[in-house]
Task: inverse folding
């Protein structure tokens, strides 16, 4: 009980700080970076549940982000839906897709599962590019309306900072409660030893599938918020590179900590901003390439070899 | 519509030879170390682009090919020595993320060195395509099959007729027993990674004249090589070869008869189907990675 109370207090404090921030900071660049940090963290939170509690890695998590973005985007831009209803359907679609895909592929584990999720991500990407009648194909989907409360459109960076961080902190609070509940204990048992957990009467496969579905829903929610924030989406940000980016966030932040996703997302967003400025000068050509991957691979290797607990562990060790 | 079938079969077999070579790389590493090396596809990319660079240095095609393969074998060995060995005994997820990291690091290195533009690569020999039955086969296609065949024969000889090959097989069956018999397991691990590097690079060098060579070619080829290996049970070299050809043919038929837009999805569908078949006990063999 004590831990739960402390967590709620910390989250509330962060919420107050973030809500007050746009009043103090007026730089659009800083505010939009904050929005993206929260959206990435929300997406990474889902993956960190999969990695920390199901002990599996998904290399197709970007697909759920894309599903969220496109479901919410298409419903509002092409069918005139209310933004919040579309967002809810988008999150539901992410969870339902994860449950449907997870049914067969979560019978696998380890590398086979990772490859299967990688293949799933690639297929979703192909569908986005080829299903031009609905998704707009490579040229994208525009005119997605911002979310609105009554007649107030949440299209300012300040409003989106509050909304995205509010969603992230709510998700962290919910995830924290689940982790401390009976379900959370069952999940930790599965993560520690699947046979032992099964011997204790826990349906490990169902637990893992549930985590995967929850992760799909969270990541899709982040994607939906993203679509309403940027108002124009095309397939290119939802490729393999983004799936890798999410894995890097989780590993950087530490797989077993919920806050790790936030820490990792912030670190990756900062790193990407620095690299965008520095790397094109170093590489041979200036095409639109995934320059981040140049260092992401090295970071992943360095962290699993030298700092498997992530940045959070480094702090608590120091 | 069915007129195209001989052509699809021929193209499928050529591509299948590539998948088989890549799949063999997965099998060699997995059967010895129980690691699925996600960097396998990046070995293919390195092999293709190194061949391009070496040929540009006015090296003859054979010399460029041999040097590229040797260099990537060295990359495989370095990866084992510097990254995989320190994590011996670590949890599966950790090693998995390590090889994913290695794959991305190699891809990033490829981006820095070669940029994003695709390279056209000269075929091994000039001349018009050949007619075989009802199909037209580019000369490079024959080179693919010829090189793949030579590699299969060479591997068979290595595994069944040499001491080192027997040591690798012993480690694959039981590393602890192999160690007790005086086999240096560390060296076999190193050898397995070097061999997988060489196999990937060979695939890359022979496929480059057909597909172009780019820094990001490794992802798709790696995934398909993996499906080929899984089709064959992941620990069986002949299985991976058969799996490679099967996947190549199925993919070419699907692209030709159904839709070429989703050609790359075929491998994934095959993988999911395999998983389902195994989960319901309809598969006559087991894929050990799922145990």
Result:
């Amino acid at each position: 009980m004590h831990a739960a109370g402390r967590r709620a207090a910390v989250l509330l404090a962060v919420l107050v700080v973030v809500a007050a921030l746009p009043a103090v900071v007026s730089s659009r660049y800083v505010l939009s970076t904050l929005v993206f940090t929260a959206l990435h963290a929300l997406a990474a939170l889902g993956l960190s549940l999969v990695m920390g509690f199901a002990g599996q890695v998904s290399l197709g998590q970007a697909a759920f982000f894309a599903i969220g973005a496109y479901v919410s985007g298409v419903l509002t831009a092409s069918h005139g839906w209310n933004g919040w209803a579309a967002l809810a359907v988008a999150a539901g679609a992410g969870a339902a897709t994860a449950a449907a895909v997870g049914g067969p592929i979560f019978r696998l584990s380890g590398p086979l599962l990772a490859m299967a999720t990688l293949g799933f991500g690639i297929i979703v990407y192909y569908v986005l590019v080829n299903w031009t009648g609905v998704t707009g194909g490579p040229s994208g989907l525009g005119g997605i309306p911002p979310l609105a409360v009554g007649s107030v459109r949440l299209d300012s960076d300040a409003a989106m900072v509050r909304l995205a961080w509010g969603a992230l902190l709510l998700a962290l609070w919910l995830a924290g409660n689940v982790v401390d509940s009976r379900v959370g204990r069952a999940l930790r048992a599965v993560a520690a030893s699947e046979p032992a957990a099964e011997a204790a009467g826990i349906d490990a496969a169902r637990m893992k599938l549930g985590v995967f579905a929850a992760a799909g829903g969270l990541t899709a929610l982040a994607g939906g918020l993203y679509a309403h924030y940027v108002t124009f989406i095309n397939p290119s940000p939802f490729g393999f590179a983004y799936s890798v980016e999410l894995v890097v966030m989780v590993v950087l932040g530490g797989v077993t900590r919920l806050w790790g996703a936030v820490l990792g997302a912030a670190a990756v967003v900062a790193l990407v901003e620095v690299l965008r400025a520095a790397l094109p000068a170093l590489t041979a050509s200036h095409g639109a390439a995934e320059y981040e991957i140049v260092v992401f691979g090295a970071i992943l290797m360095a962290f699993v070899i030298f700092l498997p607990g992530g940045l959070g562990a480094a702090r608590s060790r120091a | 519509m069915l007129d195209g079938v001989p052509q699809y079969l021929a193209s499928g077999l050529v591509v299948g030879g590539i998948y088989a070579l890549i799949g063999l790389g997965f099998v060699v590493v997995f059967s010895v170390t129980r690691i699925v090396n996600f960097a396998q596809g990046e070995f293919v990319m390195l092999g293709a682009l190194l061949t391009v660079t070496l040929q540009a240095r006015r090296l003859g095609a054979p010399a460029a090919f041999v040097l590229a393969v040797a260099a990537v074998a060295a990359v495989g060995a370095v990866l084992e020595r510097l990254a995989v060995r320190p994590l011996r005994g670590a949890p599966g997820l950790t090693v998995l993320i390590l090889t994913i990291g290695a794959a991305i690091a190699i891809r990033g290195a490829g981006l820095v060195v070669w940029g994003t533009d695709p390279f056209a690569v000269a075929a091994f020999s000039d001349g018009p395509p050949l007619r075989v039955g009802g199909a037209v086969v580019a000369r490079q296609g024959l080179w693919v099959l010829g090189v793949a065949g030579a590699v299969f024969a060479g591997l068979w000889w290595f595994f069944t007729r040499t001491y080192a090959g027997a040591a690798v097989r012993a480690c694959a069956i039981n590393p602890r027993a192999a160690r007790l018999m005086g086999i240096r397991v560390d060296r076999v691990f190193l050898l397995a990674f070097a061999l997988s590097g060489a196999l990937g690079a060979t695939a890359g060098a022979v496929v480059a004249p057909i597909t172009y060579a780019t820094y990001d070619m490794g992802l798709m080829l790696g995934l398909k090589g993996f499906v080929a290996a899984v089709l064959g049970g992941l620990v069986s070299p002949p299985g991976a070869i058969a799996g490679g050809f099967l996947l190549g043919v199925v993919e070419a038929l699907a692209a030709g008869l159904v839709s070429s837009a989703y050609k790359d999805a075929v491998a994934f569908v095959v993988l999911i189907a395999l998983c389902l078949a195994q989960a319901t006990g309809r598969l006559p063999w087991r894929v050990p990675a799922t145990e």
Observations:
- The radius of gyration of chain B is 19 Å.
- Chain B has a mean pLDDT of 88.
